[in-house]
Design the sequence.
C-alpha cells in the first residue's frame, strides 16, 4: 500500500468537481486501498479522492473504531436528508488540526456503488451521516468551511494561511503525512 499526499486548503483540486467513476477495475481498487491507508495514518474518518489529487467520485470512510466499520463509496447520490439536524464539531484532513461547530442533517439516504460497480442504498444516522455528507461535498468541490458561520470560516482561512507560511513557504501541493499524525484534537477529521 502507498500512503498518498493529502492536499491542503489552497490547492485548486479541492475546488474541482470530481468525475463519475465508470471503470470499476483494479486501478480503482488500488486507489481505494491507498486512500484507506492514508486516511488511517492521518487519524481521519473520511477521505475523498479530491484530497489526494484524483478527480473521481470516490471516498473512503470509517466509524473511527480500531476494528470498526469502514468502506469505499463510488458515485454517491443523496436521495434524502432529514430536516432534523445534529450538532457537533467537524474537521477536515485538508485543514489539519482545525475543528468548528457545524450542524448537519441527522439522517440521510444515499445511493452509491461499491468497487465492483454494484448499486446500493443506505440510510445513515448521526456520525456516519455527517461523514458521508462531508465527503460527498468534497466530490463537488465544496468544503466544510463553506457551511461555517462567517467568523469561523475567516478564522479557518487565516489559520491555514499561517500554516502554509510557516511550514511550506506557500507551497500547498504536497505535504508530509507526519504533520497530520498529530493533528487530531477533540474531533475526527474528515
Ligand atoms: Zn474533508
Sequence:
Amino acid at each position: 500500500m502507498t500512503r498518498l499526499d493529502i492536499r491542503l486548503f489552497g490547492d485548486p483540486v479541492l475546488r474541482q468537481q470530481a468525475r463519475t467513476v465508470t471503470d470499476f477495475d483494479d486501478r480503482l481498487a488500488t486507489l481505494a486501498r491507498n486512500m484507506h491507508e492514508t486516511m488511517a495514518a492521518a487519524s481521519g474518518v473520511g477521505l475523498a479522492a479530491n484530497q489526494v489529487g484524483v478527480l473521481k467520485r470516490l471516498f473512503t470512510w470509517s466509524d473511527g473504531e480500531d476494528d470498526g466499520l469502514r468502506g469505499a463509496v463510488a458515485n454517491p447520490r443523496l436521495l434524502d436528508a432529514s430536516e432534523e439536524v445534529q450538532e457537533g464539531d467537524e474537521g477536515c484532513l485538508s485543514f489539519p488540526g482545525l475543528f468548528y461547530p457545524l450542524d448537519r442533517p441527522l439522517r440521510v439516504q444515499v445511493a452509491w456503488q461499491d468497487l465492483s460497480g454494484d448499486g446500493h442504498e443506505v440510510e445513515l444516522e448521526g456520525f456516519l451521516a455527517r461523514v458521508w455528507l462531508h465527503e460527498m461535498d468534497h466530490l463537488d468541490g465544496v468544503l466544510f468551511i463553506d457551511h461555517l458561520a462567517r467568523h469561523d470560516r475567516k478564522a479557518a482561512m487565516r489559520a491555514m494561511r499561517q500554516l502554509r507560511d510557516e511550514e511550506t513557504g506557500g507551497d500547498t501541493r504536497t505535504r508530509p503525512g507526519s504533520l497530520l499524525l498529530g493533528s487530531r484534537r477533540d474531533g475526527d477529521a474528515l
In short: The beta strands are 46-48, 58-62, 70-81, 85-86, 89-91, 99-101, 104-105, 107-113, 119-125. The helical segments are 26-41, 127-139, 150-167, 178-181.
